[in-house]
Structures are given as structure tokens and as C-alpha cells.
Probable molybdenum cofactor guanylyltransferase
Amino acid sequence: MEITGIILAGGKSSRMGRNKALLQVGDETNIGRIKRLIQTRTDHQILITNDPDSYEFLQMPMYEDEHKEHGPLAGIEVALKHSETPWNLIIACDMPFADMEIARFLCKKVQESGAMAAVPEYNGKRHPLFACYHKDFLPYVVDALEEGEKRMVNVLDQVNAITVTEEDLKDAGWSEAHLKLAFYNMNRPEDYEWVQTQQV
């Protein structure tokens, strides 16, 4: 199962007040950490960003949104267009503790089910920006963007997408404490302060 790891770094970090992808987590940048993690469990890696100059240090293929101001959906569109593998792991740059074993679990689930996407659910919320997608999801994204749709969950509701529940993840052996870290979103200054208290 060949997988492309895709980092989305197209947001404006408005709630953080500064570029959250470039914040220091441990002894590396947040996005550098995520790149290192996805390299351990994916065969190819690409970055989606509208500010490529800020990420040249990563030395990885970069692509910009074709539909500006359309949020993560536009990032997924260009990511799937440029991916050369059927399966694709999408991960947002605000998840410094994203677990790559969970990522592989998601990709295995979607392959076994024959679905087009596997999206985890934790604490009552789906996480479409830490999920596994088949390249066949692309036409639905394109159609949605052309119709002015910006919400990822609305597109997912139109296709054969499976939800990997919190219970599924716990049954597979991950604890509540581990899941809290794995799905932690770093969006505000207080979120970053908490991240800095963790051992990484």
C-alpha cells in the first residue's frame, strides 16, 4: 500500500497571531516535526502552502492552492491532483503530536472497507484533516469547489467515507491520554503554551 503524506500549511494562523507551522516544538519547528513523522510511515511527501518561501528549508515538493480563500478543501484539491499514489494521508500543520501508527491504521481501515476516505472521530468531532483519502475523492472536491462549497464535512457526507470512531481506536489499543495528544489542535497562544509543557 503506497501512501503519499500531505501536509496542509495554507492557513493564516489568525487565532495564533503568528505562523503556527514555524513555532518551535522541542528542538525543531512544528512543521519540521510533522515532516519527520510522516516520513516514517509514508512513501512520498508533499507540502501544500500559499507561502512557499517560508518553507524552503524543508526541501520538499510544494504546491499552492488553485482556489484561493477556500480553506483546507482547496488544499486537498491540489494535493490529490499532484499525488502519484492512490492512497493519501492528509495532515494539518496544527497537529504537532499526530500519531503515525494511527495514520497507518486509518489507511488500512479505508483499504479494507473499499471506501473513499477514512476519517477519525475523537471527543465527538470528526477530524478530516488527519485522515486517509483515495485519489478518487478528487472529482468530488473539484465539484464542491466549483459550487462554492468550503466545508469538508459536507463533501464527505456525499461519498462513501467511513468514520473510525474513538471506540475503534481504543479497541485497537490507544489510550484516552494518547488520543488526546494525537488529535490535539494548536490554534491559539494558550494551545501552544500547553504544547510546550509536553515531553516531545
